[in-house]
Amino acid sequence: MAAITIDDVAARAGVSIKTVSRVLNREPHVRPATRDRVLAAVDLLNYRPNASARALAGSRSYLVGLFFDNPSPGYNSQIEQGAMSACRDAGYFLLVEQLPETGAALRERVAALLSAVRMDGVILTPPLCDRTELLDALAGEGVPCVRIAPTIDLGRSPFVYMDDRRAAYEMTVHLQGLGHRDIAFITGPADHRAAANRREGFEQAMRDAGLPVRPERVRQGAFSFLSGWECAEQLLDSADRPTAIFAGNDDMALGVMAVANRLHIDIPGTLSLAGFDDSPGAQVVWPQLTTVRQPVAQMAQVAAALLTGAPPDRDAARGRQLDFEIVVRQSSAVRGG
Amino acid sequence: MAAITIDDVAARAGVSIKTVSRVLNREPHVRPATRDRVLAAVDLLNYRPNASARALAGSRSYLVGLFFDNPSPGYNSQIEQGAMSACRDAGYFLLVEQLPETGAALRERVAALLSAVRMDGVILTPPLCDRTELLDALAGEGVPCVRIAPTIDLGRSPFVYMDDRRAAYEMTVHLQGLGHRDIAFITGPADHRAAANRREGFEQAMRDAGLPVRPERVRQGAFSFLSGWECAEQLLDSADRPTAIFAGNDDMALGVMAVANRLHIDIPGTLSLAGFDDSPGAQVVWPQLTTVRQPVAQMAQVAAALLTGAPPDRDAARGRQLDFEIVVRQSSAVRGG
DNA sequence: GGTCGGCAAGACAGCGCTGTCAATTGCTCT
DNA sequence: AGAGCAATTGACAGCGCTGTCTTGCCGACC
To answer: Known Pfam families for this protein (chains A, B) (predicted)?
Structure first.
């Protein structure tokens, strides 16, 4: 209860508080023997420096902000997990904030926020990472940020991303490998860069395999269950059906699955299905969904590490690319199998 | 950039910094005219007090901790949303921490955490809210907490909860109202208090309606998709089937749905199905799941409000009960309809 | 042997705010 | 009009730590 302060440690170790401070902050000019003595005292007293005092006196706050404005619980949750784990390792703390505002209101809120609590850096998740006014506000306050999967102004800040294009390419190859030649694709919102990348990956893979991409086989969805449902009705409600459908995200894939069930189209017997994201829903349906797992948590982890200055290789390129994973479950199988 | 301090405001308003402080903290003994002048200066300069300095000098830190150790993204996400909204309204900030530890390690981590950043209160979500060692550690540090849906030691702290028993009762009544008399129930883990409450509510409703609760109609699940699947196979794989199944949570209900699909049992034509939680998955299947919506976000909001001292009625009982909602979707319908 | 250079460690002054206590003001009451 | 009292306001000392500057010390070098 009676909080231990740096003075207690200094007294115990027989040094000045400044020396304790130096040890704690890994500053140079401390003899190894002295350092050991201090560390022993710290351990003995179980001392933890007070974050508020540090923030007030010094230039660091040991706080990392995580800003989001994304209704997807699964995504946010993974991001948080990753960011938190990196913060913990670096002795930092995670402050989360939802920023539903846009435009001037956003700028204001961010300014207010940052003047109240100084942050050593913030992590921006989609779609915030592409909000120019936010980037401006952050830059104006001099707060560094790392963006996750940004799509514009890539030069403005370090960022972490996954190669949607290549992932979609490989998923398409997976379906082709199962014998599918007539594969339909349901794409996401037109203004969504990642959606476009996925579609490009799909089309490239088809071309590379010498397969045609029939226009009626590419449907425009909206990344929602319902839009997947609607596209599926168009794709499946005739005798001329594709043997496989690759949906641009899992929600839409689940919409396809619902329609297939209603029409008694067997998955994966008659129709193979693949999604993208490995959302929580992908495993609570039957058959479980073949999908692309994004390294979401890992991206956040890297982002946080970049901010806390404990990155594995700090001098890597500004854009850090992480690997996806093709998760093959029961919804895709050999054609006609 | 050149941060504005309380001195700037004081100078602008022509008062001492202490008076500004008083206004900001809503302390008494400030003449309305003075208060207005100060507030005008605050507005003009767009001043926000520095949280670190406040925390260091005063007894409050304006930080609320949200501790969790729950793999359910949907739940956490809602909790966070609710807690954040209440914090924002009260001028507080939300610090999230995952505490995977148990026993002594938990105690230690919490102590370390709290000695580094003082928190004005913490919100404990299930299952952490029932970890005695955590409650002890918090009490030892003198940090108040509010628990969400705790099941033990109800007197130890204020808490917020929902009446699982009554919710299950009403869902059962809903199914009965559709004409179902042979209803099966899939319960959750035996040591899970909420699961037991739900089961009790179901059984009570059956008794009150004069309907038998046949032992083979109550199956032991584990709150997972797979366990729902297994229970459903036992319940549905014979001619003597219930006309409705009420699963103790949505994941299990989805397992039931998967089996029904496989067996070509029409939902809701032949079998009505109800879940509990209104998890994200409940809406990305077809038919969409009839379920019980827990006021998760609202519970967190109330919890945070309790902590930040801005509760609607602070002197209400220690346990604040919030209302659930029966969400009727397509998976339940009139028997034989 | 004296002086310089550099490492190690300490003294000291705040960071921006709140708590305490003292000083001032503005009223009421007689 | 003056005393008496509460309502206002301000002066000042830290909260626990880090940044800057200073001091002490040892070996190297000429």
So the answer is: LacI, Peripla_BP_3
For nucleotide C10, give the residue with the nearest CA to its C1': A16
Nearest to B49 among A47, A77, A116 (CB): A116
A70 to chain B, any CB pair closer than 8 A? The answer is no
Assigned CATH for A164-295: 3.40.50.2300
Establish whether domains B63-162+296-321 and B164-295 are of one fold: yes
Q: CA B260 to CA B267: how far, in whole Å?
A: 7
Q: Does domain A63-162+296-321 have CATH number 3.40.50.2300?
A: yes
Separation of first and last alpha carbons in chain B:
68
pLDDT in tens, A196-211: 999 999 999 999 999 9
User: C-alpha distances in angstroms, B295 versus B147, B160, B210, B279, B323?
Assistant: 14, 10, 31, 12, 7
User: Which of the four pLDDT bands, split at 50, 70 and 90, describes residue A314?
Assistant: very low
Question: Where do the structural domains in chain A lie, given as residue ranges?
Answer: 63-162+296-321, 164-295
Task: Write the residue in B77, B116, B286 that is nearest to A73 by C-beta.
Answer: B77
* Structure-block tokens of residue A147: 């963006």
pLDDT tens profile B45-98: 999 999 999 999 998 899 999 999 877 788 888 899 999 999 999 989 999 999
- pLDDT per residue as tens digits for the range B181-230: 999 999 999 888 899 999 999 999 999 999 999 999 999 999 999 999 99
Select from B200, B199, B171 the least CA-distant residue to B187: B199
Residue ranges of B 165-204 with Cβ closer than 8 A to chain A: none
